[in-house]
Amino acid sequence: MKPQHKITEIALRSWCISEYNLVNSFLIEGDTTAALIDTGCGIGDIASVVKSLTDKPVVILLTHNHFDHNGGIYHFPQSQ
User: Fold this and answer.
1) Strand pairing partners for 24?
2) How far is CA 63 from CA 3, 51, 67, in A?
3) 63: Cβ–Cβ under 8 A, 6 or more apart, which residues?
4) What is the 3-state secondary structure (H, E, C) of the chain?
5) Quick check: 60 and 39 in contact, CB under 8 A?
């Protein structure tokens, strides 16, 4: 089975999370919290990927309201 997400570390404590090579989300980890920029299409479980990279609370930031950027928001019910 093909992995749903490809994770690339792009800087210290910063990752690009590619969902099936269709759309990218970015996780930036700070000292006390992390920020996830966009949540992808929602095809895969991006919350599990984020949890594997950081144990800090995550703030969701959406760049705009298109399904390929906000489709995975349902994986983060605490952010809705």
Assistant:
1) 18
2) 25, 21, 11
3) 37, 38, 69
4) CCCCEEEEEEECCEEEEEECCCEEEEEEECCCCEEEECCCCCCCCHHHHHHHHCCCCEEEECCCCCHHHHCCHHHCHHHC
5) yes
What is the tens place of the pLDDT at every residue in 52-71? 999 999 999 999 998 888 99
Integer-rounded Cα radius of gyration of the chain: 11
Could you tell me the maximum CA-CA distance found in the chain, to the nearest angstrom?
Answer: 35
Give residue 35's identity as a one-letter amino acid code.
Answer: A
**Global confidence as pTM:** 0.90
- The letter for the amino acid at 47 is A
5, 44 Cβ separation under 8 angstroms = yes
Distance CA 12, CA 29 (A): 9
